[in-house]
């Protein structure tokens, strides 16, 4: 399993939640993961019910089996200042640059530079080793920008190479690209079983493949249970209302007569949705990628619910390949379903 | 109409759309909440109420363009066919690069424009900078408004990481293009070797030296060339950014914050409401999208589940001992006043609503009914569930369920399924209500309209029309109690 797990998805599909659950799932059995966010939203802190994350890696949760999830909110400006400090020993000159708006320019205006800094920091964490030469993090999981921007975000080489043709930013872009286009990286797309997110997922995968970025899984989020099969639903909208009313009464429901119509209506809506979901599921299956499904949480996303979702990931075999967790060689073909269908 | 009063009211969508003073409606909110669809639906409704409307969408799904009968939206407003009445609807999609190009072309001579358009830095900036889309949306809005061709401009905002980017980005780009840093960058080109400026040039070269090392010299040269070429336009950029900003504060503009009844979306909505207030921008209200309701809401999730469990137990017992074995399942049935015919009732006396006799066929007030039944009729050809059989089922129920033993097990399973489905729905309803309550507690002054969740996506004009109808009628006060 790739060590750099990038989670993207259309807005509103819950990609932050999915990224967090994935970080927990991958941290089980004593492993250590780093969950990073890059959009300054403090979504991770909210999910884990902690205070706002600083620009500093810190442990945010303990996974079943003694694993650890660490978290980091990457800030482009801080990353750039660190970077300048590291390479140029800028000191107060860094502050002067900031005052002049040069840092602002480099991190928000200069196209692509911001993305290089953000992905660069994440890639650094992916490759970081301790004194024994072992990876500090078994996995790095990124809560990435949404599907519509993910390819541009990750494809920093294209963005920056045309502008910064030499220099450290250029070199960093090259180094980042080597990680991002290798088997070390997998980009997952979160979707719902609805038309627009599925369409956007398909478009996003085409873009990622065109840019030769490694596509991982499609994660179908907020899957609602199918409580009635379709035959039953057809029956329900047919001529059995009288029987249903009687049965409701027998079950102890008062005033069942007034309830039959709305209950059957809700069932019909459910049936329609089941039908639409089947179409969308088929469309997703046609993408030829491994999938994972996470259920809709009745109570909303709470901390315990995150653990449930992580468990769900584990049940579906995500993060179950502990053998190669710290390996270094490319692991092509090891993933079930060979989701890495790049270059096609 | 009054905007931003302190009294919690429903959002009067039609009054807003009809108000001749209102020339711009901006739909904003976080990603995935249905902003674009809401903007399109508002456009359709306003046009059919007689206004001449243009909808500026930023990133519509293909289907949405098709739903307005347009294969492909582009940077030019296209008339939408099939609008009823005197009004007109035009729709367009922002092409940010083209809008930027046009802005450049409109404000400088041809030769200079070409130099800018061919500059690599410009090409990246116009296509890539995270704020360009927001800035260009505002630029386009300013253009549309100044042409004065439309009564009403409905704007959809870009799918930003956060709804607030939309307000910040134009300022950011404006201040960059007009800022100190740019002045420094172009200083050598502008002032050459003027003696008095030497000090500045020293600071400048130190800085460009560092940035040059970091980004590569070519990059900086591109920026400098770009900036030099753009120089004549800088004042213009600042002025235009300011003008657009003022336009958004003007009384002729109304902001609608769009959200779904989910925690994150409403949190963003709350931020946005506060931000608009801070910027003195006129908020018209909140569109709460994809709200779930139930016409059977007097049956709580708990009771539905208990009943489902009763039935599932019954299904098993039926095959052996029959109904008789169930008599002792519910010792408190007698406590349930509304259910004399129900020997198995698990209800407690505090549960049934005394206002709703059991046989009442439509237990909900009209607005609730319209909320949930109207979308059914729309775009769904098959299996209308509210057929005429409803009444007969209701009437037939008057007979006590004495022959229940003979009912097949599958009916029990079916009914149990209906009950579980209902329980799930009620849980969703309760969660949404809770989230919504949190918002209204924080911002009681914000008028709200609700749009019921539809089972499918919108595919045509009548779908947009139906949503427009929901937008106009969904402003009844929030239901309370079990809902």
Automatic annotation (TrEMBL), chain A:
Gene3D superfamilies: P-loop containing nucleotide triphosphate hydrolases (3.40.50.300)
Domain ArsA/GET3 Anion-transporting ATPase-like positions: 3-180
Pfam families: ArsA_ATPase
Region of interest (Disordered), ranges: 316-344
SUPFAM superfamilies: P-loop containing nucleoside triphosphate hydrolases
Coiled-coil features, chain-numbered ranges: none
Protein name as annotated: ArsA family ATPase
Species, as recorded: Streptomyces atroolivaceus
The organism's taxonomic lineage, starting at the top: Bacteria, Bacillati, Actinomycetota, Actinomycetes, Kitasatosporales
From TrEMBL, chain B:
Family matches, as Pfam families: ArsA_ATPase
Disordered, as annotated region: 325-401
SUPFAM superfamilies for this protein: P-loop containing nucleoside triphosphate hydrolases
InterPro entries: ArsA/GET3_ATPase-like, ATPase_ArsA/GET3, P-loop_NTPase
Annotated Basic residues bias: 371-380
Domain ArsA/GET3 Anion-transporting ATPase-like: 23-292
Superkingdom: Bacteria
Protein name: ArsA family ATPase
Protein species of origin: Streptomyces atroolivaceus
Lineage: Bacteria, Bacillati, Actinomycetota, Actinomycetes, Kitasatosporales
């Amino acid at each position: 399993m790739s060590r750099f797990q990038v989670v993207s998805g259309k807005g509103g599909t819950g990609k932050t939640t999915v990224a967090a659950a994935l970080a927990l799932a991958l941290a089980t059995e004593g492993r250590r993961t780093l969950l990073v966010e890059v959009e300054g939203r403090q979504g991770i802190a909210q999910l884990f019910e902690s205070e706002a994350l600083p620009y500093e890696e810190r442990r945010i949760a303990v996974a079943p089996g003694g694993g650890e999830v660490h978290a980091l909110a990457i800030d482009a400006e801080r990353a750039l200042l660190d970077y300048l400090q590291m390479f140029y020993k800028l000191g107060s000159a860094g502050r002067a640059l900031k005052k002049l708006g040069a840092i602002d320019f480099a991190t928000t205006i200069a196209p692509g530079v911001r993305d290089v800094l953000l992905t660069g920091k994440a890639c650094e964490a992916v490759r970081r080793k301790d004194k024994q030469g072992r990876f500090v993090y078994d996995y790095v999981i990124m809560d990435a920008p949404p599907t519509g921007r993910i390819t541009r975000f990750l494809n920093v080489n294209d963005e920056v190479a045309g502008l910064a043709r030499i220099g450290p930013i250029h070199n960093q872009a090259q180094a980042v690209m080597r990680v991002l286009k290798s088997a070390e990286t997998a980009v997952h797309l979160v979707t719902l079983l609805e038309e627009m997110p599925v369409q956007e997922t398909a478009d996003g995968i085409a873009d990622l493949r065109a840019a030769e970025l490694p596509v991982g899984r499609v994660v179908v989020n907020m899957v609602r249970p199918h409580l009635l099969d379709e035959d039953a639903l057809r029956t329900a909208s047919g001529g059995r209302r009288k029987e249903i009313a009687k049965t409701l009464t027998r079950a102890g429901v008062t005033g069942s007569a007034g309830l039959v119509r709305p209950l059957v209506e809700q069932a019909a809506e459910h049936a329609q949705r089941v039908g639409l979901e089947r179409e969308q599921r088929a469309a997703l299956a046609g993408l030829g990628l491994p999938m994972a499904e996470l259920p809709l949480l009745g109570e909303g996303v709470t901390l315990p619910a995150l653990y449930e979702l992580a468990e769900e990931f584990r049940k579906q075999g995500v993060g179950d390949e502990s053998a190669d967790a710290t390996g270094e060689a490319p692991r092509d073909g090891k993933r079930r379903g060979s989701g890495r269908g790049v270059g096609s | 109409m009054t905007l931003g009063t302190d009294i919690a009211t429903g959002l009067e969508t039609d009054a807003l759309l009809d108000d001749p003073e209102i020339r711009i409606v901006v739909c904003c909110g976080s990603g995935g909440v249905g902003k674009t669809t809401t903007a399109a639906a508002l456009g359709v409704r306003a046009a059919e109420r007689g206004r001449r409307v243009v909808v500026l969408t930023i990133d519509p799904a293909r289907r949405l363009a098709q739903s307005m009968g347009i294969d492909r939206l582009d940077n030019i407003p296209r008339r939408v066919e099939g609008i009823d009445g005197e009004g007109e609807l035009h729709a367009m999609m922002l092409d940010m690069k083209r809008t930027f190009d046009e802005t450049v072309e409109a404000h400088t001579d041809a030769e200079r424009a070409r130099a800018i358009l061919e500059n690599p830095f410009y090409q990246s900036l116009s296509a890539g900078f995270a704020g360009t889309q927001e800035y260009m949306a505002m630029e386009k809005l300013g253009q549309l408004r100044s042409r004065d061709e439309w009564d009403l401009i409905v704007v959809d905002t870009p799918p930003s990481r956060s709804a607030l980017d939309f307000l910040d980005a134009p300022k950011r780009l404006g201040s960059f293009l007009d800022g100190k840093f740019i002045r420094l960058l172009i200083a050598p080109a502008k002032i050459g070797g003027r003696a008095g400026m030497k000090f500045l040039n020293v600071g400048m070269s130190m800085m460009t030296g560092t940035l040059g090392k970091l980004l590569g010299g070519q990059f900086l040269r591109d920026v400098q060339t770009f900036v030099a070429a753009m120089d004549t336009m800088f004042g213009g950029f600042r002025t235009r950014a300011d003008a657009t900003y003022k336009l958004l504060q003007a009384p002729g503009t109304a902001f609608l914050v769009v959200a779904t009844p989910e925690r994150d979306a409403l949190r963003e909505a709350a931020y946005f409401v506060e931000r608009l207030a801070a910027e003195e921008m006129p908020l018209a209200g909140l569109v709460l999208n994809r709200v779930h309701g139930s016409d059977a809401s007097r049956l709580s999730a708990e009771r539905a589940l208990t009943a489902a469990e009763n039935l599932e137990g019954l299904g098993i017992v039926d095959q052996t001992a029959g109904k008789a074995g169930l008599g002792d399942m519910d010792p408190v049935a007698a406590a349930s006043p509304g259910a004399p015919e129900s020997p198995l009732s698990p209800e407690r006396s505090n549960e049934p609503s005394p206002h709703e006799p059991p046989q009442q066929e439509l237990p909900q007030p009209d607005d609730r009914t319209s909320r949930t039944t109207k979308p059914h009729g729309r775009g769904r050809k098959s299996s209308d569930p509210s057929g005429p059989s409803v009444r007969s089922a209701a009437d037939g129920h008057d007979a006590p369920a004495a022959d229940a033993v003979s009912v097949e097990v599958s009916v029990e399973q079916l009914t149990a399924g209906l009950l579980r489905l209902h329980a799930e729905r009620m849980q969703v309803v309760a969660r949404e209500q809770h989230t919504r309550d949190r918002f209204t507690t924080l911002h009681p002054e914000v008028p709200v309209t609700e749009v019921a969740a539809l089972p499918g996506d919108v595919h045509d004009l009548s779908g947009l029309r139906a949503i427009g109808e929901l937008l106009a009628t969904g402003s009844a006060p929030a239901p309370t109690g079990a809902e």
